[in-house]
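ARCHIVE CARD
Drawer: 12
Card no.: 0347
Subject: one protein chain, sequence and derived structure
Cross-reference: see card 0346
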Amino acid sequence: MRAYERLLDYVKYDTTSDENAPEGRFPSTESQLVLADHLAAEMEQLGFQNVRRDSFGYVYGFLPSNCGTKQPVIGLIAHMDTSSAACGAGIKPRIVKNYDGGEIVLNEGKNVVLRPEDSPCLKECLGMDLIVTDGTTLLGADDKAGIAEILTAAEILNRRNIPHGPIAVAITPDEEIGRGTNHFNLEKFGADFAYTVDGGKLGELEYENFNAASAVLIVHGIATHPGDAKNRMKNAVLLGIEFNALLPPAETPEHTEGYEGFFHLLRFEGCEERAELHYIVRDHDRKKFEARKAALRRVADYLNEKYGAGTFELQLKDQYFNMKPVISRHMEIVERAERAMRACGVEPTAVPIRGGTDGAMLSCMGLPCPNLSTGGFNFHSRFEFIPVQAMDKMADILVELVRAEE
């Protein structure tokens, strides 16, 4: 079975994770367990040993070495959940054969069109077969494509009897909401180092990412009848607007790129009496990251002094950290991935992740874990797509990655 065929099977399962689920519920949605059981059964059919789906929804499996030389235990990891940024239920994928460079009508009735001017990455896919959505849901290649590529590589290894060392595979839940490693069993996983297969464009190789925090600002106002509100009302909505206006206006996602960090206002809701502002804070540089959190505290303190203690309640929570300090001590695993890509005719490109992966958390937990491409584009979107040929190539790259070295 080819990787794209597995992807078309996996996207039938709605595995959207829920960031609003209580921390004690894991995984955040029970539907992830349904795909987890399906994947565990498939891994057993592919010859994995010690396959287990634990109570948290993680799926683990092990391919023993088939060569006579001592090799490291290499881990391969992907996640099964999909983002809530677009609907993940009722996905209806189709394949656009031999893409010619023009517009792709995803949904004629709803006038949803994938246009080259909106997605310049399409020009890199001329002549390829593109798996697209019907314009009403995401596709789920993030990261079901990674799962498909890993299991297809395992099938190729077995079918062709390619010499390899021990391989540990893990499929994780709830990565999209930052909880993917909360119950990851490093000891049982047993890898010396690992790779997440959770990136985008074919050939991208990532070993540095944002430091990340979430921030929730609760504004406590005073509501009165507007007819006699003078010098009495404290409108929490307007106070929230004032807070946001004191942050650097150009340091938002739409004005930054590369290594530039940002403050991102995700959600703002409320009334005169109470308002909530939800932010994420990101920066590659740890000192700048800490300075961003300090800036939020400073603005809250300033406004509390202006409007009264307790008016602004700021809750900050670290989410994950940059993996680069860990990976920089193990660059041989990056070089191994680069060799695998070049052996398959793909030139590797190291890029900083403007986000995070399970690999970032696992690296900080002691398991060096850079991130590899899946070949997909426009993740978390109704315009998500992935070339069939890119998935085939990634499966081949994974085979080369774990091939026994002398």
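Annotation on reverse: The CA atoms of residues 221 and 273 lie 4 Å apart. The radius of gyration is 23 Å.
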